[in-house]
Design goal:
- With 399 residues, the chain is an alpha/beta fold.
- Helix content is 43%, strand content 21%.
- It has four domains: 95 residues, Nucleic acid-binding proteins (OB fold (Dihydrolipoamide Acetyltransferase, E2P)), CATH 2.40.50.140; 141 residues, Cobalamin-binding domain (Rossmann fold, 3-Layer(aba) Sandwich), CATH 3.40.50; 41 residues; 42 residues, no CATH class.
- A five-stranded mixed barrel has the order 1-2-3-5-4. A five-stranded parallel β-sheet has the order 7-6-8-9-10, with helices on both faces.
- β8, α6 and β9 form a beta-alpha-beta unit.
- The protein is elongated.
- The N and C termini lie far apart (158 Å).
């Protein structure tokens, strides 16, 4: 066993960090039931409170991103069920729970019912992203399915008016809470589809408890959403609220206001896009005009007056004539040279030329040219042709 001197000495921070890590590994995300006490919203937006029962209490913190969904619904003494992470606040060495979700106590079975229905519909393929449609970029009209008394309706109408007053808004009034609300919402969705007055539908209502939002967790409404021929954007409750309708709709927005923003193009953005398109078209038109001007200049350079064209052809004709005359002269000289060569060659074969060099031609009495002494007999008369004149003689001897 190591002695105390051999054991590592931890700083306070190292010890508390080790305890925190051990707690977080030992206790994963879990649900705890208790009573809310010492409820306090800080300027930062975080919510601090104590969760207690008859035998104990524990400090809790719910950070702003989560607390915003409950700022109007929590109250002292309220029995709740909190989904928490067990942790340790190191700067104070204080054990605390970090709250991820919160619901009124006793709603656990209802939440389990929500999870079972969600799992069944998801397995059926009702939430398949491939079957969902994007809302149109430029809707001709927007439909809003909600209660006429809902604060969400005012938020949606205000947002739509601010973004683009030119888009017509059609409100399809229907209760969004209470007994039979899910069936009536589904019927209103079918009516909106039959009337076919708009390009996108907004299904909206404000926040509330899981009981208040339960009509949006009904199977009949989920199936009506998937059967809608018009794309549906769901904006139900706060950002942390999720219902079956959110999963069944074509698009889910975290709030009714966000749903209105998602479905409506902002007039200012459209104007900016139109201006940019105008600039692009102007630049393109100027570019095309420039190209056309350059092509016209090139054609103008190629364009020749008929007189100039004729003059050019005439000059070409004169040039061709000169070339033809030159070619004929060369041809004639070549012919003369060939003829002279042939004349010289022929002259070398002329018998008269041979005779002129001292040779002679001898013929017998019949005029036959003699080439052999055997062709004549002694005493015969022969005629000899010289270069100038001829001789007649008698053969006396031959050899």
């Amino acid at each position: 066993m190591p002695s105390d001197l051999q054991r590592p000495i931890l700083t306070v921070s190292e010890l508390l960090r080790s305890v925190r890590d051990t707690l977080e590994r030992r206790f994963p995300l879990l649900w705890v039931r208790g009573e809310l006490s010492n409820l306090n919203y800080a300027a930062s937006g975080h919510c601090y409170f104590t969760l207690k029962d008859r035998g104990a209490q524990v400090d809790c913190v719910m950070y702003r991103s989560r607390a915003q969904a409950f700022d109007a619904s929590l109250r002292e003494g309220m029995q709740v069920e909190a989904q928490v992470l067990v942790s340790l606040y190191e700067p104070r060495g204080r054990f605390q729970l970090t709250v991820e979700n919160l619901r009124p106590a006793g709603l656990g079975p209802l939440y389990e019912r929500f999870l079972r229905l969600k799992a069944r519909l998801e397995a059926e393929g009702l939430f398949d992203p491939a079957a969902k449609r994007e809302p149109p970029q430029f809707p001709a009209a927007i439909g809003v399915v909600t209660s006429l008394q809902a604060a969400a309706l005012r938020d949606v109408l205000t947002t739509l008016a601010r973004r683009n007053r030119a888009i017509p808004i059609i409100v399809y009034p229907v209760p969004v809470q209470g007994e039979g609300a899910a069936e009536r919402i589904a019927a209103m969705l079918r009516r909106a589809n039959d009337r076919a007055e708009c390009d996108v539908l907004l299904l909206v209502r404000g926040g509330g408890s899981i009981e208040d939002l339960w009509p949006f967790n009904e199977e009949r409404l989920a199936r009506a959403l998937r059967a809608s021929r018009i794309p549906v954007v769901a904006g139900i409750g706060h950002e942390t609220d999720f219902t079956i309708a959110d999963f069944a709709a074509d698009r889910r927005a975290p709030t009714p206001t966000a749903a209105a923003e998602l479905a409506s193009p902002a007039r200012a953005e459209l104007a900016a896009r139109v201006a940019e398109c105008t600039r692009c078209l102007s630049r393109d038109a100027q570019r095309q005009l420039g190209y056309a001007a350059q092509a016209l200049d090139a054609l103008a350079r190629r364009l020749v007056h008929p007189a100039a064209r004729l003059k050019g052809l005439q000059q070409d004709l004169v040039g061709l004539g000169a070339r033809l005359s030159l070619a004929l002269s060369h041809r004639i000289r070549s012919f003369h040279s060939e003829i002279e060569k042939l004349r010289i060659a022929l002259g070398g074969l002329d018998p008269a030329a041979v005779l002129a060099r001292g040779y002679s031609i001898t013929r017998d009495a019949s005029g036959r040219v003699l080439t052999d002494p055997a062709q004549v007999a002694a005493g015969e008369t022969v005629a000899t042709t010289l270069a100038r004149g001829w001789l007649e003689s008698e053969v006396r001897k031959k050899g």
